[in-house]
Amino acid sequence: MADVLASGQFVTLPLGATEERLVGTLDLDAALAEGRAQFSPGVLAKADGGVLYVDEVNLLADHLVDLLLDVAASGVNMVERDGISHRHAARFVLIGTMNPEEGELRPQLLDRFGLNVALSGQTQPAERSQIIRRRLDFDSDPVMFCQQWQAQQDALKLRCEQARQLLAGIELDDHSLAMITERCFAAGVDGMRADLVWLRAARAHAAWRGAGRIEEQDIEAVAEFALRHRWREPAPPPQNPEAPPPGSSGRQADPESGQGNWGELPALAVTTGARREVPSWPKKP
Question: What ranges does the record give for the region Disordered, renumbered to this chain (predicted)?
């Protein structure tokens, strides 16, 4: 993949990386002695202008994922230690892979990834055979394998370069934006990140085709990638209130009293006894 990149930078972040290894470190002793910040670059500085790949991103500590996404969005890495700060450019494309069975990312973090692609391991038998055969050929003679596919690799690199040149000339027109915003509203996505990412991805797809403007096929081609991790299920319809039990009072609660009929009980039938008259006794003399 590094061969088709403009800068050729493809940096991998180890799973057990610390924050210092990610952002870099400042030598405080040198700063106090010489009066200047001595900065040791980290992974973010090495990935500037290229691609930063994170395997098992769902197993990475949340604060490191937050830091990665902040730098990827701003393009600047800021390191501060004890009142001393240093900043440098860190513009890169962040690619993360994960196995959902090992744990999910928090929705707040997942939404900040621009596109989401789901891969299935259930490939067709013919494709599986082709993958295994190419793997065996590479293990047998890596140099010969690379030479065999060099022409296809060069063609892919040339197409990427041509798409980059066309990208700046493709307008983000209002018609395409209206189509995307309507679809995002219908999908119930939160925020505006989906609209922005979808529009940019559609323009990139148009440049990849060699077109001069965004068309509906470009919008549809990247729709699933932009919405897959942002789609909201519609809320279930409210259930009909159950009928009151037999014997309950039909009186309505007084809205002004604020009490309602919360303490009301159904009337119970009570058996009454026979009534007897008290005899009239004569008065004593």
Answer: 232-285
- Cβ atoms of 48 and 91 within 8 Å: the answer is yes
Distance CA 214, CA 236 (A): 36
Q: How far apart are CA 203 and CA 205, in angstroms?
A: 5
- Number of C-beta neighbours around residue 206 at 10 A: 24
Active-site entry in 193, 228, 230, 232: 193
CATH code, 79 = 3.40.50.300
**What pTM was computed for the model?**
0.71
> Looking up tokens 């209002």, which residue turns up?
174
Q: What residue numbers bound the domain in which 58 lies?
A: 2-113
Query: Considering only CA atoms, which of 187, 278, 193 is closest in space to residue 228?
Result: 187
User: DSSP E strands: which ranges in the chain?
Assistant: 10-13, 25-27, 38-40, 51-55, 76-81, 84-89, 93-97
State pLDDT tens for residues 71-100: 988 999 998 877 778 889 999 888 989 888
Residue 188 shares a structural domain with residue 105: no
Two tokens, residue 70: 């902040």
Q: What is the DSSP letter of 72?
A: H
Instruction: State the burial class of residue 25 (Cβ atoms within 10 Å of its Cβ: 0-12, 13-18, 19+).
Output: middle
Calpha distance 4→162 (Å, rounded): 12
